[in-house]
Design a protein that fits this description.
The structure holds 2 protein chains of 2 kinds. Chain A is α+β, with helices and mostly antiparallel strands. Chain A contains 3 helices and 6 strands, in the order H-E-E-E-E-E-H-E-H. In chain A, strands 1-4-5-6 form a 4-stranded mixed beta sheet. A two-stranded antiparallel ribbon of chain A has the order 2-3. In chain A, about 25% of the residues are buried. Chain B is an alpha/beta fold. The longest helix of chain B has 11 residues. Classes of the chains: A alpha+beta, B alpha/beta. At the A-B interface, helix 1 and helix 3 of A face helix 3 of B.
Chain lengths: ~120, ~160
């Protein structure tokens, strides 16, 4: 008997090929996911309006984990890392990880994937 | 390897465990680990179709290319993996094996990248080495199905075209 792979109900409009590939990968391994289900306010102005926010790409309900996909090289993700640090500081109970191009490549065992950069 | 073998032998003494190795990356590791375990145990193998992305002929869902030879219900199962990264593959395999109601299910891995984990509740009990975010070949690790036979682990470097 084989576990039935999970798939999200509707295919959303992804921002880039890496996100699409990530969704395909999660479907392949039967991991349920939601696309951009929540936006986190990071900073507010004096008037209370949100001046900086962050919307992680995926939420994995079984892992209670948000995943941000990055197509950039790991050395060039400073800006995203800064946002992740802010998010973790403000929402310490929220679990979030970066998912790199390399993770997909490793699982794909291919090294010439042509993702949008 | 001797340390890992002794640990496993001590933990599974008298339990007659089944070492389950996913092909093909763990081939050399399980061969060495099995010989280092001074306790009675069985060996079995599974093979999963790897993720092929959107490549033509790729599969939409993970599936078994080779199933276990024997039932594992009531048995103590130790999955012997070459490397744990995101944990997606092992998570699938764990769910698949748990449906067969083993007495226990643990994981031994030669290499571990815990900082890459997406599924982090895996029962990883034995770790050879925590390694940096490099791609390895040799000792069972391949590049396009080649170089598995290299006797030691080497770091591969890639030049993007």
């Amino acid at each position: 008997m084989t576990p039935v792979p999970a798939r999200s109900a509707q295919t959303p409009r992804f921002a880039n090929d890496a996100e699409r590939e990530c969704a395909r990968l999660l479907d392949f391994y039967g991991v349920p996911w939601e696309y951009e289900p929540r936006t986190f306010a990071l900073t507010e102005g004096e008037d209370g309006r949100v001046t900086e926010a962050f919307t992680p790409d995926f939420y994995l309900p079984e892992q209670d984990l948000y995943v941000e996909v990055t197509v950039m090289k790991q050395t060039l993700v400073t800006r995203k890392n800064r946002k992740l640090r802010k998010l973790r500081a403000r929402y310490p109970n929220v679990r979030i990880k970066l998912f790199y191009r390399r993770d997909i490549e490793r699982l794909a065992q291919r090294f010439r994937l042509d993702f949008a950069r | 390897m001797r340390e890992l073998g002794a640990q496993v032998a001590g933990d599974y003494e008298g339990l007659d465990p089944v070492l389950v190795a996913p092909l093909k990356g763990s081939l050399f590791f399980v061969a060495d680990l099995s010989r280092a375990i001074r306790a009675v145990h069985e060996l079995d193998f599974v093979e999963l179709a790897g993720y092929g992305g959107a490549a033509p002929g790729g599969h939409e869902h993970v599936r078994l290319l080779k199933d276990l030879n024997a039932p594992i219900e009531g048995r103590h199962v130790l999955v012997v993996e070459d490397v744990v990264d995101t944990g997606l593959t092992l998570n699938y395999l764990r769910k698949l094996l748990e449906l067969r109601q083993p007495a226990s299910l643990g994981i031994a891995t030669l290499l571990d990248r815990p900082y890459r984990r997406l599924v982090d509740d895996l029962p990883v009990r034995y770790v050879g080495f925590v390694v940096p975010d490099e791609y390895f070949v040799g000792y069972g690790f391949d590049l396009d199905e080649r170089h598995r036979n290299l006797p030691e682990l080497r770091v591969a470097e890639f030049r993007r075209t």
